[in-house]
Amino acid sequence: MIYRNSYFRKELRQAYTENKISTKRKMASALFLGLFSFALYFVFQTLQESVLSDVIPEIMQPSFFSTIYIYIHIAVIFNISYFIIYYDYLFFTEIRKNAWYLLIQMGYSPVIMFFLKLLALIYSVLLTYTVGFGTIIILTFLLKYNFIAAYLPALYIAGMADLLLITILSMTFSLYAKTVINGRYWTFFTAILGFVLKILMGQYEIISNRVAMQNLDTLFNLGISLYWPAALGIMFACCLIGLFRSKSLAMYYNLSLNSTVIPEKTDLIEIGSGTGRDHLLGSKAKKGWGSTIVDTLTTIALIVFICAALVFNLFIILINASTPGQEVTIRGVIPFVFRSNTMEPEIMINDLTYFQKVDHQYPVEEGDIILFEENNVLYVERVIAESDKQLTVDIDNYPPMSQTGAMQKIVTRDNVHGVYTGRSRWLGALILFANTIVGRLLFLLVPAVLLFYQAQIYKYFKKSNNQA
Description:
InterPro entries: LexA/Signal_pep-like_sf (IPR036286). By secondary structure, the protein is of the alpha+beta class.
């Protein structure tokens, strides 16, 4: 219900209370966002010596910048999930339910109704975002990092702009989505659109630079990025489109199924609110092939995910249990997690390396990197010279102030287990994460939950599909 007076307050009190998101729960959500971002930062810190430090150093640094940078992205993910779950309550699906028709006929202004509903949602989103932003700052103080307040305004505005963009886009798309499911798809698409826009406009290069973000003017420098004109133009256009579209939709009345003006012996067709498919009311149609496909795909997806997680856990256990002479071998390849920086830059620390398993007759040449055993310990070094049954090996990367060549050693040919063929930095990082406490819980707990509750999950998707 919409009221002429105090609509803004009424929208906040009623619309969000009805979908069980009260002010207290908004505050709880904001605190959760701050705590979750803070915990996620610690998870990333366990992966310092991995490919992540090279690819996304902005979230790996011991600073306020990293924790807040993580938070503004988590806030976007949270709000997109929030929009998708409560889509039917937050957006303009109420217009299709005739909530605006009589009010407009009575002289209520659709302009005021449109903008106040939009402002009500923006207010709710920014309130949660601001409280969470303050929470992550307070939590980071506990780490005793150097507090640099210069980049806090820039980071806050950058995160706020993302939320405003996806909120306004989602509101506009909801006026064109004929079904709830399609509307949720469009809402997810807004996050992708915002992410792509930031990449194309060079905005990510600015907000991921800790030095550049200390100057607020850099964020709005049009010589570096045109993101702000593009984002503001999109939001302005969406507001105009939404205004005229909502006014047009509210001029039509959707006839209720219980209406008495329907002639007798008239067939009624119901359009599913989920998918837009129509079916004859009262008919007992058989289960269609589409429903069968969804059920089958859901079951297959669960089985594949559970099996993949279990296999990965087994793979990690075997690698961790490897000992000299009993390494894991997969189709003649020995996977080996490299724990040193002695072979950089060819092999980085915590890379998952691959070695071709060889016997004593396999030709090992000068320049090859080999996996060999010495005193019941496995080493990885480069061959710098070779003779009949002996190899001279050395490391590539000597520590500063150390004498080059001090680590040279002679290896007998029989102690060579494998020859280096390649590496995977991302799998190495994944294995490093899986060996942490959080990783252990995630890779073991999630498959276990899915395994024991797969029947309930299957019934949920089946129920959703049938309701559609």
